[in-house]
Design goal:
heterodimer; A: about 525 residues; about 70% helix; B: alpha/beta; Rossmann fold; five-stranded parallel sheet; three-stranded antiparallel sheet
Chain lengths: ~525, ~325
């Protein structure tokens, strides 16, 4: 169920109407049911994975602070995945196929987890706390690693062996990537680490924690919330205010406009230029990458606004994820504006634990490269994402080591700042070419197109068309340029807001009949 | 904090105002929008005693005008067909060339091109029903089997859009429909190159290609074309309107061998011929060795091909004595 689908337009109001009259635990139960229903519409099978992750994180976090749950409760919780998969297998044979391997793994899960939990409890206190933290972190990373990266690394190894003339005769299994796995595993890791560090008290009940981890507005593509800010919104019942409705509807409208009008339309040009059969020349290659820059921004920031708007209607505040990213004056500034919750996650849970910039310039650069390559790989199991991460690491290194560039990023004079923003925008565009190409061959195809100046399909009208679809977004951003939240319009007069809402609504309606999936759902 | 803010009320007022304005001002151009060519009168705009053919409501007629009541001395020919009959313009279609042939012969002819791209038998029959109102002296019906996929697809869209399904609730607003129409037809249609749009519609083209290669589907479509064409002809005969059928031929090259294939239309179309129904197979107009120079693709004919069809039509009408007497010079 996509946020811009008619199904969601019925589902969300229904949940909101049922939610507010309920007491806190009732709300949690409703949120959990709604979130599992929302997630289950993509693939019922992977709810078992979410249940398993929920159980491990909940019990590990409780154990870290010395609360030992009863064995029966742990057993019942860890049996949930196999019961769910068994039920699906038994009742839904005609619509879904459950592989025997999945059933075996789900069956082994309680057999492994319950004794391990008991065993770690026999350790001394500090060792036990660390043991539960690592159990939670490693289990989440193992899930992510297996579903997202096993196929990629295994096929890369096969290719490497093939190049060396060795045929190991392996047949790789086809592994389906579960929707949202990159997001909820990162949120789980943050939860385990924060509880271990004492920044956060663990959830008091399993229901609240399950609703927290599966919260449907941000489950599929973030924002990746920090438990310390996010969890209290579940443990304390929000009070109804009209502001929730107003802010929620505003964010939903802005998000729908960004996704449907900007992103989905820009995708037409980007898809054409990056299509393997297309033969673009340099103007088209430039148009294509410009279109993709606004496609991915409109798509992901639109998704974030839709998620924030949905959550706000339920009285829950989600983090801002974008802050005018194309006004960044350098790569460091860019990552404080683009997918902020992911970059701050990598900063706090990878870069700083690696030593950050505290261990000398060489180590800082090494840490930067590790962090950025991992951030690239997080986006997808492909060498182009690794290359994209490395490209950003290279930019960060260059801006750090070359004095002129570093000064450019922090320039305050108008002319220099304008130049810095323009220069960074060009660098960002090249990064998007790596990101969008999907394969190294695709990147080569685009780079080759940049060298062709012979006329092909006339491009000027297409450039005008693209401009028509980008301009309203730019104007919207100008309206809120001095604010921290790029989707805030509260500082404008009521009639300006009314006109903007109406204009955005018309633009949304002008493109609303074709529904396309969000890019970040695949990550 | 109030439930309704002033900005929200302004938004609602603007929407309501636009809705009313569109309902009153653009009422004629709204006709048949989202009926995907299945609206009976869309594209025929009657203003006083004139009828304007317009691009609207799923009908993309070339803009033309004619008198609602046919003047007695005018020989009115209405050509109903798909993109092949439509051609690239009225003047370079066989409708335009036929008008020239008849005018040269001294006949006060008014030939109207009612060709619509992608229209199969079902939607052509709706146009036939509409033209009965305008007293044609002759209807030329272009019959082919290559558009049944589009007819089926557009029927599905029409049914889907006109259902009470929640996905259509937003577009119940005529103002939003108008905005959507302007965006897709004026902005996308005129600025976005065909090559770019083709990538987006590649899936649809693939579906059509797969369906076209399915012999069972082909058989069903041929039966459907036959049944619907029979109905159209009966309608015209009941109204006493002379009819001329032009049958489509497709140009194919197999192993350097050029063939002209009418997709089995000739097996049944002959049954419809009578003293009031003539037949001109395109296959009889072109020789296979000419075809390479006369077709722009497997179905569409270049202007020179249209000229040859028009010449054959004029000859056939003259030979059968269907043409009125030339005007006295």
């Amino acid at each position: 169920m996509s946020f811009t689908s008619w199904q969601y337009a019925l589902f969300l109001p229904l949940v909101v109407v049922l939610y507010w009259p309920l007491p806190r635990l009732g709300r949690m139960a409703l949120l959990l049911a709604a979130s599992y229903f929302f997630y289950g519409l993509w693939d019922l099978r992977f709810l078992a994975l979410l249940m398993a992750s929920t159980g491990i994180d909940y019990f590990c976090a409780r154990s870290m602070v010395g609360i030992r749950e009863g064995r029966a409760k742990i057993l019942c919780t860890t049996l949930a995945p196999i019961v769910w998969l068994g039920g699906c297998s038994f009742l839904g044979q005609s619509i879904i196929s459950i592989s025997p391997t999945s059933l075996i793994v789900a069956g082994i899960f309680p057999v492994l987890f319950v004794p391990m939990h008991e065993w770690i409890w026999t350790w001394s206190e500090e060792k036990r706390r660390r043991g539960f933290m690592w159990l939670s972190v490693l289990t989440n990373l193992a899930v992510l690693g297996f579903f997202k990266y096993f196929g990629f690394f295994a096929s890369s190894l096969l290719n490497l062996l093939g190049a060396a003339g060795i045929d190991p005769g392996w047949t790789l299994p086809h592994i389906i990537l579960p929707v949202a796995v990159s997001f909820y595993t990162f949120q789980s890791v943050a939860y385990a680490v924060d509880v271990y560090k004492g920044k956060l008290q663990p959830a008091t009940d399993l229901l609240t924690f399950s609703a927290y981890l599966a919260f449907f507005p941000q489950l599929v593509a973030g924002p990746i919330e920090r438990p310390a800010k996010f969890m209290p919104q579940f443990t304390q019942a929000a009070r109804w205010e009209w502001e929730h409705l107003h802010a929620g509807l505003r964010l939903l409208l802005i998000g729908a406009f960004k996704k449907v009008f900007v992103a989905d339309n820009c995708a037409e040009i980007a898809n054409y230029v990056f299509h393997p059969d297309a033969t673009p020349n340099a103007p088209w290659a430039l148009l294509g990458i410009l279109a993709f820059a606004f496609q991915i921004y409109g798509d992901f920031s639109g998704y974030t606004d839709l998620a924030r708007g949905s959550a706000r209607l339920l009285g829950i505040n989600l983090s801002t994820n974008f802050r005018f990213p194309y006004l960044a004056s350098g790569p460091s500034d860019f990552w404080q504006r683009w997918h902020i919750t992911l970059s701050s996650w990598f900063r706090d849970y990878v870069y700083i634990p690696l030593g950050g910039n505290r261990c000398g310039p060489t180590r800082t650069v090494v840490n930067l490269w590790i962090t950025m390559v991992l951030a690239g790989l997080w986006h997808g199991a492909s060498w182009t994402f690794v290359l994209w991460g490395a490209y950003h690491a290279l930019m960060l290194t260059a801006y750090r080591l070359i004095p002129g560039l570093g000064a450019l990023e922090t320039a305050t004079t108008r002319g220099k700042r304008l130049f810095a923003i323009s220069f960074m925008f060009v660098l960002t565009l090249f990064g998007w070419a790596i990101f969008r190409a999907q394969t190294l061959g695709g990147l080569e195809h685009w780079m080759h197109a940049m060298t062709i100046w012979t006329p092909t399909v006339p491009w000027f009208r297409a450039a005008c068309w693209l401009f028509i679809h980008i301009l309203p977004l730019i104007l919207l951003q100008i309206a809120s340029r001095h604010l921290e939240d790029e989707s805030e319009l509260g500082h404008l007069s009521w009639w300006s807001r009314g006109l903007i809402f109406f204009a955005l609504f018309l633009l949304f309606a002008s493109s609303s009949t074709s529904e396309q999936e969000f890019i970040y759902f695949q990550f | 904090m109030r439930a309704l803010t002033r900005s929200f009320l302004l938004f609602l007022t603007l929407w309501l105002t636009l809705e009313l304005a569109v309902r009153f001002i653009f009422v004629s151009t709204m006709e048949g929008r989202f009926d995907y060519g299945y609206h009976p009168t869309a594209g025929f705009q009657e203003v006083d005693d004139k009828v304007n053919l317009k691009r609207t409501g799923g009908r993309r007629f070339f803009p033309q005008s004619f008198q609602k009541e046919r003047p007695k001395d005018v020989y009115r020919v209405m050509v109903i067909g798909d993109s092949v009959a439509r051609g690239t313009s009225v003047h370079e279609s066989y409708t335009g060339y036929l008008q020239k042939e008849l005018l040269v012969a001294g006949i006060k002819a008014e030939c109207l091109n009612l060709g619509l791209p992608g229209f199969g038998a079902r939607r052509k029959d709706l146009v036939v029903q509409q033209v009965l109102k305008y007293q044609p002296s002759l209807v030329i019906l272009h019959v082919g089997t290559t558009n049944e996929y589009e007819d089926e697809r557009e029927w599905g869209k029409k049914e889907s859009f006109n259902s009470p399904h929640p996905k259509n609730w937003l577009m119940r607003s005529v103002a939003l429909r108008q905005v959507y129409g302007i965006k897709t037809e004026k902005v996308d249609g005129q600025l976005l190159p065909q090559e770019v749009r083709a990538i987006g519609s590649a899936q649809d083209a693939m579906t059509e290609q797969i369906a076209s290669k399915d012999p069972e589907k082909q058989r069903q479509w041929t039966q459907f074309v036959e049944a619907t064409t029979r109905e159209s002809i009966k309608r015209l005969q009941d109204a006493g309107i002379p009819t001329l059928i032009v049958t489509q031929v497709n140009f194919e090259i197999n192993a350097q061998q050029v063939t002209l294939d009418d997709r089995s239309i000739s097996n049944w179309i002959g049954d419809l011929v009578s003293d009031k129904v003539l037949l001109l197979p395109m296959k009889s107009v072109f020789m296979p060795d000419q075809a390479r120079k006369l077709f722009m693709d497997s179905a569409h004919v270049l202007p020179e091909g249209h000229r040859l069809i028009a010449r054959s039509l004029a000859s056939l009408l003259k030979e059968k004595g269907w043409l009125p007497l030339p005007l006295q010079k």
